Amino acid sequence: MKALCVENLCKEYPSFRLHDVSFSVEEGRIVGLIGRNGAGKSTTMKGLLRFIRTDGGRVLFFGKDIARHEREIKEQIGYVAGGFSYYPLKKLRSIGKCAARFYKGWNADAYKNYLRAFGLDEDKKPSELSDGMKVKYFIALALSHGAKLLIMDEPTSGLDPLSREEFCDLILKVVKEEDVSVLFSTHITSDLMRVADDIVYIADGEVLAAGAIGELLAKYEVACFAEMPKEQVVGLKEVKNGYEGLIAAGAPSDCAARRPADLDALMIHLETARKKEKECPHS
Fold first, then answer.
1. Which one, of 198, 202, 194, lies nearest residue 213 by Cα?
2. Using one digit for the tens of pLDDT, what is the confidence trace for 183-215?
3. E strands present in the chain
4. Burial code of 53-84, b = ≥16 C-beta within 10 A, e = fewer?
5. Contact (Cβ atoms closer than 8 angstroms) between residue 225 and residue 255
6. CA gyration radius for the chain?
7. Could you tell me the pTM of the whole model?
8. Is 63:97 a contact under the CB 8 Å cutoff?
9. pLDDT digits over 235-282, tens only?
């Protein structure tokens, strides 16, 4: 079963349009929602959770439409937003008691166990925690009410490399031991390569690529040319020593050198190709 299925999600703003965004999160998998700043990641997150009114589309959690079963569904999901500014001066003890009143499935013993496992002190306030510890606390809250899907908007934003590594280790452990699925947005591709099974790549409010990371990367190689190539190259751009772009993996080419594609290259060249297509739609 799919933990999440987003179908043709749309949202129109005066200066931005989220257009027919569709993707899914299979149970037990970790999906990274990627794109540059302003691409539509947060709008997508807010739209699928009904934090904002959308202009079209359908969102199913565990096969149920959130428009009809919102209260029931939100018992089964945990949401963590970047910034972690909730109740900065309240002690964790008070936040936990408050959270317990909102969820029928709240498990006080599990909550205490997660606090202990994550090294969290109930007498601390969020303002006294590092950003990494704040992430751990909000994951603890989500798991304590039995969430089966974690949705996180830029959870590693502002974290130092060691804290990001700890986050990745924690997510892998939670998915394996707690039988949860994860959707998280980020622009840090190294985090995705560390933990994600699949990616959804959004640019200018539209999905440019989606699927298993390994399968997407296996489609392309980065080709380097000393001179302007005559062959078709995806997202060709000028670089220090010539030109660079994506070609089909294993395809014959007059390129000077080639290497396996990574997520950075995929994002850069697909977005370059999109930009050129918009500038010259009939070329």
1. 198
2. 999 888 888 899 999 999 999 999 999 999 999
3. 2-13, 16-26, 30-34, 56-61, 64-65, 77-81, 149-153, 181-186, 198-203, 206-212, 220-225, 234-239, 242-248, 257-260
4. ebeebebbbbeeebeebeeebbbbbbbbbbeb
5. yes
6. 21
7. 0.89
8. no
9. 999 999 999 999 999 999 999 999 999 999 999 999 999 888 877 765
